[in-house]
Amino acid sequence: RTDPVVIMLATYGDKAFLGRQKIFPKGMYSAAAGFVEPGESIEEAVARELDEEAKIDVKSVRYHSTQPWPFPSSLMIGCIAEATSEDFEIDGIELSEGRWFTRDELAAALDGKADGFFVPPAFAIAHHLVKAFVEKW
Fold it and tell me: What is the pLDDT of residues 99-126, one digit of tens each?
């Protein structure tokens, strides 16, 4: 059995939102993610997860790509969501921190030259969502 999981990069203009979980290595920020609930569309799951984790409102969702993830038998469904504003409020449960990053900051992170933070490695779909944003996909 494989469970669907949405993983999304929220964007607003030239910025993208990334969050941190307490279990992440120090300095790592990543895309928000969560399981798709029964009867829920991908778009609904993206909007719900961003609302639950960071109180980010979404006006549109674009599918990007998928990635099988063996832990725990998931199919990661990567999306880019356009936020209605830069407002956010971290839930403190799933995310311990969050912030909006500029394209330039994220480009530096992809090159391993960011100041004080990094993004997931190239084998992770979150990396490819960040790369798509930087490349104005």
Answer: 999 999 999 999 999 999 999 999 999 9
Q: By the 8 A CB rule, do 79 and 63 touch?
A: yes
**Whole-number Å distance between alpha carbons of 89 and 91:** 6
Q: Provide Rg for the chain, Cα atoms.
A: 14
> What are the b/e assignments for 84-123, b being 16+ CB within 10 Å?
eeeebebeeebbeebbbbebebbbbbbeeebeebbbbeee
Against a cut of 0.85, is the pTM above it? yes
- The CATH number that applies at residue 102 is 3.90.79.10
**Residues constituting the chain:** 137
32: its two tokens: 């928000």
Distances (CA, A) of 8 to 28, 37, 46, 58, 78: 16, 16, 7, 11, 6
The number of domains in the chain is 1
